[in-house]
Structure formats: C-alpha cells, structure tokens
Write a structure and sequence with these properties.
It contains 9 helices and no strands. By secondary structure, it is mainly α.
C-alpha cells in the first residue's frame, strides 16, 4: 500500500481493524495537523496541544472497531476530539480561532511587490481579525471554526457538537454579523 493517501479513510479503518495496525499511521498523518489545530484552539500552547492530539488518536485507535460508517471518518474523529477538548478544559477558557494557528498568513510572509507599509496594514488587519474572533462567544467560535477551517457541513457540526442544525446556522450567522460589526472600523484600511 502506498503512503500517498489514495485510499479512503474507511478502507484504512477496515484494514486496521482487520489486523494491519501499522496502517493507523496513515490516519494520524492525514488528520494530525487538524487535530493539533483543534488542540491549539482550546489549550493555546504547543505542549498541551500535542498531548491532546496524542490522547485523541489513542481514543480513536481504541474505538476503531466501533466506527460504523454512519458518518465520514473525519466527522467521527472530530467529534472524539471535540469531546476530549471539552472534557480537558474549563468551558470558559480563552479559546482562539484556528485561523491563528493554521490558516492566516504569518507576519513575516511577504507578497511579491509588497511594501513595508502594505505589510504593516495587512498585519494590523490580521491582528484585528484574530482579536475579534477571540471575543466571540465560545459556541459561535466552535461553529465558525468547524465550518470554515475544518470544512464541516452543518450536519457534521451537529454530529460533532450536538447543537441542532438551525442553532448552528444561527451561530454562524451571528458570528459573521458580530465580526462584520467589530471589523467595520478597519474597512477603510
């Protein structure tokens, strides 16, 4: 079997549960970064996020025989990760967006033809977005993160969080509205 990821998650799970346990590393390689990112969202430091990822993959490995393919493997894994994170931190912890960890450009990255002034403006805008995301209520941030940064559908977010689909839609809508209001001051920049 090639290590290039051409096999479906479900195929890999079936092989692991049939005794080819070393293939579990393919799932870890495929989902390690997103799970680590979720850990950073909840715990905000690399050591705790790394411990969190190890704990999640250990739980997933032990639970593989119970995976019933009623949802995508990634949805099932993210549900385990989400519940592990909730159990590991106080619900009022300083939860940051995944954008800070993985999706937004770093301050040191220059775009071709960029001037120091434009880079400073972009960095200020980036910081404003991150600050605004941190101010959102946790239930909104979770829905936004899973929707935009994990590319989960509303149904998948429902399966992960237990929130009804209409509540998720409402949370995402309200989060966008709050972000728009908070960021309207930097629009001109």
């Amino acid at each position: 079997m090639s290590d290039k990821g051409e096999h479906s998650d479900e195929f890999i799970v079936s092989q692991v549960t049939s005794g080819q346990r070393d293939l579990f590393r393919l799932l870890v390689r495929r989902y390690g970064r997103p799970v680590y990112g979720m850990g950073m969202s909840f715990f905000r430091n690399a050591e705790d996020a790394s411990d969190f990822a190890q704990e999640v993959f250990l739980k997933v490995y032990r639970s593989l025989p119970r995976f019933e393919e009623r949802s995508r493997f990634s949805t099932w894994l993210y549900k385990i990760a989400y519940n592990t994170a909730l159990n590991g931190v106080n619900r009022r912890t300083d939860f940051c967006s995944l954008a800070e960890v993985d999706r937004m450009p770093q301050a040191s990255e220059l775009v071709d033809g960029d001037t120091p002034e434009r880079q400073a403006i972009r960095n200020a805008a980036r910081e404003a977005v991150l600050a605004s995301l941190k101010e959102l209520p946790e239930r909104y941030r979770v829905c936004v993160d899973l929707s935009f940064f994990y590319d989960c559908s509303y149904r998948e977010i429902e399966m992960i969080t237990g929130f009804p689909v209409n509540t998720i839609k409402s949370h995402v809508f309200r989060a966008k509205k709050l972000l728009r209001e908070k960021l309207s001051g930097i629009k001109g920049e």
